[in-house]
TrEMBL record:
This is Uncharacterized protein. SUPFAM superfamilies: Ribonuclease H-like. InterPro entries: RNaseH-like_sf (IPR012337).
Length: 184
Protein backbone atom coordinates (compact mmCIF):
# COMPACT_ATOMS: atom_id res chain seq x y z
CA UNK A 1 0.00 0.00 0.00
CA UNK A 2 2.73 2.50 0.92
CA UNK A 3 4.68 1.64 -2.24
CA UNK A 4 1.68 2.46 -4.42
CA UNK A 5 1.29 5.66 -2.39
CA UNK A 6 4.95 6.53 -3.07
CA UNK A 7 4.45 5.91 -6.79
CA UNK A 8 1.83 8.68 -6.81
CA UNK A 9 4.45 11.18 -5.63
CA UNK A 10 7.52 10.19 -7.63
CA UNK A 11 8.27 9.37 -11.25
CA UNK A 12 11.35 7.47 -10.01
CA UNK A 13 10.89 4.09 -8.41
CA UNK A 14 12.49 2.88 -5.22
CA UNK A 15 15.15 0.30 -5.95
CA UNK A 16 15.15 -3.29 -4.81
CA UNK A 17 18.83 -4.16 -4.80
CA UNK A 18 20.19 -7.57 -3.93
CA UNK A 19 22.32 -7.43 -0.80
CA UNK A 20 24.98 -9.45 -2.61
CA UNK A 21 25.60 -6.59 -5.04
CA UNK A 22 28.52 -4.46 -3.90
CA UNK A 23 27.65 -1.07 -2.48
CA UNK A 24 23.92 -1.81 -2.37
CA UNK A 25 23.50 0.50 0.64
CA UNK A 26 25.30 3.35 -1.16
CA UNK A 27 23.13 2.88 -4.25
CA UNK A 28 19.99 2.87 -2.11
CA UNK A 29 21.03 6.04 -0.24
CA UNK A 30 21.72 7.78 -3.55
CA UNK A 31 18.22 6.92 -4.70
CA UNK A 32 16.80 8.22 -1.42
CA UNK A 33 18.44 11.58 -2.10
CA UNK A 34 17.00 11.62 -5.62
CA UNK A 35 13.47 10.96 -4.32
CA UNK A 36 13.77 13.09 -1.17
CA UNK A 37 11.11 15.61 -2.22
CA UNK A 38 8.68 12.86 -3.19
CA UNK A 39 9.24 11.07 0.12
CA UNK A 40 8.66 14.29 2.05
CA UNK A 41 5.51 15.05 0.07
CA UNK A 42 4.23 11.55 0.71
CA UNK A 43 4.70 11.59 4.51
CA UNK A 44 2.97 14.97 4.91
CA UNK A 45 0.05 13.99 2.68
CA UNK A 46 -3.34 13.10 4.18
CA UNK A 47 -2.99 9.63 2.61
CA UNK A 48 -0.06 8.87 4.93
CA UNK A 49 -2.15 9.57 8.03
CA UNK A 50 -5.14 7.62 6.73
CA UNK A 51 -3.14 4.44 6.24
CA UNK A 52 -2.94 3.04 9.77
CA UNK A 53 -1.05 -0.23 9.26
CA UNK A 54 1.95 -0.18 11.60
CA UNK A 55 1.45 3.45 12.64
CA UNK A 56 4.40 3.34 15.06
CA UNK A 57 6.84 2.49 12.25
CA UNK A 58 5.12 5.04 10.01
CA UNK A 59 5.67 7.81 12.54
CA UNK A 60 9.38 6.90 12.84
CA UNK A 61 9.70 6.96 9.04
CA UNK A 62 7.91 10.30 8.86
CA UNK A 63 10.16 11.78 11.54
CA UNK A 64 13.32 10.68 9.68
CA UNK A 65 12.12 11.78 6.24
CA UNK A 66 11.30 15.26 7.55
CA UNK A 67 14.51 15.60 9.56
CA UNK A 68 17.19 17.87 8.09
CA UNK A 69 19.67 16.26 10.49
CA UNK A 70 18.91 12.80 9.06
CA UNK A 71 19.31 14.00 5.46
CA UNK A 72 22.56 15.70 6.41
CA UNK A 73 23.84 12.38 7.76
CA UNK A 74 22.80 10.62 4.54
CA UNK A 75 24.71 13.19 2.48
CA UNK A 76 27.75 12.78 4.76
CA UNK A 77 27.70 9.00 4.40
CA UNK A 78 27.55 9.40 0.62
CA UNK A 79 30.44 11.88 0.60
CA UNK A 80 32.61 9.48 2.58
CA UNK A 81 31.67 6.35 0.67
CA UNK A 82 31.58 7.83 -2.84
CA UNK A 83 35.37 7.64 -3.41
CA UNK A 84 35.41 4.02 -2.23
CA UNK A 85 32.43 3.13 -4.40
CA UNK A 86 33.97 4.87 -7.40
CA UNK A 87 37.21 2.91 -7.04
CA UNK A 88 35.35 -0.39 -6.75
CA UNK A 89 33.22 0.49 -9.77
CA UNK A 90 36.24 1.44 -11.91
CA UNK A 91 38.15 -1.72 -11.03
CA UNK A 92 35.13 -4.01 -11.46
CA UNK A 93 35.76 -4.40 -15.16
CA UNK A 94 37.20 -6.75 -17.73
CA UNK A 95 39.54 -3.99 -18.90
CA UNK A 96 43.11 -3.90 -17.60
CA UNK A 97 43.31 -1.59 -14.61
CA UNK A 98 45.84 -3.11 -12.21
CA UNK A 99 48.28 -0.33 -13.16
CA UNK A 100 45.81 2.24 -11.81
CA UNK A 101 45.24 0.71 -8.37
CA UNK A 102 48.10 2.44 -6.51
CA UNK A 103 47.18 5.94 -7.59
CA UNK A 104 43.43 5.34 -7.27
CA UNK A 105 43.88 4.00 -3.73
CA UNK A 106 45.94 7.00 -2.69
CA UNK A 107 43.45 9.43 -4.28
CA UNK A 108 40.53 7.62 -2.68
CA UNK A 109 42.00 7.96 0.82
CA UNK A 110 42.66 11.66 0.23
CA UNK A 111 39.08 12.26 -0.98
CA UNK A 112 37.69 10.48 2.09
CA UNK A 113 39.94 12.58 4.33
CA UNK A 114 38.79 15.77 2.60
CA UNK A 115 35.10 14.85 3.03
CA UNK A 116 35.56 14.15 6.74
CA UNK A 117 37.67 17.25 7.37
CA UNK A 118 35.15 19.48 5.54
CA UNK A 119 32.29 18.11 7.62
CA UNK A 120 34.26 18.61 10.82
CA UNK A 121 35.34 22.06 9.61
CA UNK A 122 39.00 21.16 9.99
CA UNK A 123 41.92 22.49 8.03
CA UNK A 124 43.38 19.84 5.71
CA UNK A 125 46.79 20.68 7.17
CA UNK A 126 45.56 20.00 10.71
CA UNK A 127 48.22 17.67 12.08
CA UNK A 128 46.15 16.74 15.12
CA UNK A 129 43.73 15.03 12.79
CA UNK A 130 40.21 13.81 13.01
CA UNK A 131 39.37 10.88 15.30
CA UNK A 132 36.85 9.65 12.70
CA UNK A 133 39.37 9.85 9.89
CA UNK A 134 41.93 8.00 12.00
CA UNK A 135 39.48 5.12 12.38
CA UNK A 136 38.44 5.15 8.71
CA UNK A 137 42.09 5.38 7.65
CA UNK A 138 42.94 2.39 9.84
CA UNK A 139 40.21 0.33 8.12
CA UNK A 140 41.28 1.43 4.63
CA UNK A 141 44.96 0.72 5.29
CA UNK A 142 44.12 -2.70 6.78
CA UNK A 143 42.19 -3.50 3.60
CA UNK A 144 45.03 -2.21 1.42
CA UNK A 145 47.56 -4.28 3.36
CA UNK A 146 45.41 -7.38 2.98
CA UNK A 147 44.96 -6.96 -0.77
CA UNK A 148 48.24 -5.29 -1.69
CA UNK A 149 50.19 -7.25 -4.21
CA UNK A 150 53.67 -6.70 -5.70
CA UNK A 151 51.96 -6.89 -9.08
CA UNK A 152 50.14 -3.61 -8.31
CA UNK A 153 53.44 -1.90 -7.54
CA UNK A 154 55.10 -3.26 -10.67
CA UNK A 155 52.16 -2.32 -12.90
CA UNK A 156 52.10 1.18 -11.41
CA UNK A 157 55.87 1.56 -11.88
CA UNK A 158 55.71 0.49 -15.51
CA UNK A 159 52.83 2.79 -16.45
CA UNK A 160 54.25 5.02 -19.23
CA UNK A 161 52.16 7.94 -18.00
CA UNK A 162 54.52 8.49 -15.07
CA UNK A 163 57.54 8.89 -17.35
CA UNK A 164 56.09 11.49 -19.72
CA UNK A 165 57.55 15.00 -19.68
CA UNK A 166 54.02 16.43 -19.38
CA UNK A 167 53.25 14.46 -16.21
CA UNK A 168 56.66 15.15 -14.65
CA UNK A 169 56.29 18.91 -15.28
CA UNK A 170 52.73 19.06 -13.91
CA UNK A 171 53.63 18.88 -10.23
CA UNK A 172 56.43 19.94 -7.96
CA UNK A 173 58.51 17.04 -6.72
CA UNK A 174 57.30 14.57 -9.33
CA UNK A 175 59.90 12.01 -10.33
CA UNK A 176 59.85 8.93 -12.55
CA UNK A 177 58.65 5.86 -10.67
CA UNK A 178 62.05 4.17 -10.62
CA UNK A 179 63.44 7.21 -8.73
CA UNK A 180 60.52 7.56 -6.30
CA UNK A 181 61.72 6.68 -2.79
CA UNK A 182 58.14 5.87 -1.68
CA UNK A 183 58.00 3.13 -4.29
CA UNK A 184 61.29 1.60 -3.08
Amino acid sequence: MRLSMFNEFSPLKLLAIAETRFASVVIMLRRFVLVKNALQSMVISPQWDIYKADSEAASVVKEKILSDVWWSKVEYILKITEPVHEMIRVTDTDNPCVHLVYEMWDSMIEKVRKAIYEREERNLNDHEGSPLFKQVHKVLIARWTKGNNPLHCMAHSLNPRYYSAKWLAAGEGRVPQHKDLEMG
